[in-house]
Amino acid sequence: MKRAEILQEVRKMRFEEAYDGWNRGRLTQEEAARLLGVCDRTFRRYLIRYEEEGMRGLADRRLGQVSHRSAPVDEVIALTDLYSRRYRGFTAKHFYSWYRRAHSGMRSYTWVKKTLQSKGLVQKASRKGTHRKQRPRAPYIGMMLHQDGSRHEWCQSHC
Fold first, then answer.
1. What angle (nearest 5°) sits at the alpha carbon of residue 71, between those of residues 65 and 76?
2. Cβ pair 99, 92 in contact under 8 A
3. Most CB atoms within 10 A, among 2, 82, 98, 99?
4. How far is CA 108 from the centre of its chain?
5. Structural domain of residue 81, as residue ranges?
6. Whether residue 53 sits in one domain with residue 14
7. pLDDT tens track of the chain, all 159 residues?
8. Based on the domain organization, do 79 and 109 belong to the same domain?
9. What's the per-residue H, E or C state across the chain?
10. How far, CA to CA in Å, does 74 sit from each of 29, 80, 103?
11. 96: left (phi > 0), else alpha (psi -120 to 50), else beta?
12. Cα separation of 54 and 70, whole Å?
């Protein structure tokens, strides 16, 4: 189950609690809306949808839709076929240069790399170590202060 679906189920359970409290007169609309983390106008919209369609009316209707920005399926298939037939074994960067130059590809490098990785044609690179590793703290109070050779009073009292 994806995160959005889990959050949707949690929202439904919280709505049932808020609806029950509001229906029994224990909560006002503003308090029920605050309990859900929405404004009271949104809570009234939820009420209308719940009374018309039941719990199905509260479902997020965007979850089942395909993104309008996603690439057409035939383009994805053409890209993976091209890599599998002619360029198998190439790195994503090397394949991308040929994809743009010889095949007039118009997609970005990131899109090409992620598409090939999702189809299992190119392995994800292993993560490198952290760039700047944090040095452990000095074990003694004032240890880092005396390294510059200063003779300040506040330094001598701690050293």
1. 120
2. no
3. 99
4. 20
5. 73-118
6. yes
7. 688 888 888 888 999 999 999 999 999 999 999 998 999 999 999 999 999 998 888 887 777 788 888 899 999 999 999 999 999 999 999 999 999 999 999 999 999 999 999 999 999 988 777 777 777 776 666 555 555 566 666 545 555
8. yes
9. CCHHHHHHHHHHHHHHHHHHHHHCCCCCHHHHHHHHCCCHHHHHHHHHHHHHHHHHHHCCCCCCCCCCCCCCHHHHHHHHHHHHHHCCCCCHHHHHHHHHHHHCCCCCHHHHHHHHHHCCCCCCCCCCCCCCCCCCCCCCCCCCHHHHCCCCHHHHHHC
10. 49, 10, 15
11. alpha
12. 32
100-104 long-range contacts (CB < 8 A, ≥24 apart) are none
Q: Please report where in the chains the tokens 């009073």 appear, as a residue.
A: 153
Which tokens in the block code for residue 76?
A: 């994805």
Structure tokens belonging to residue 49: 């949808």
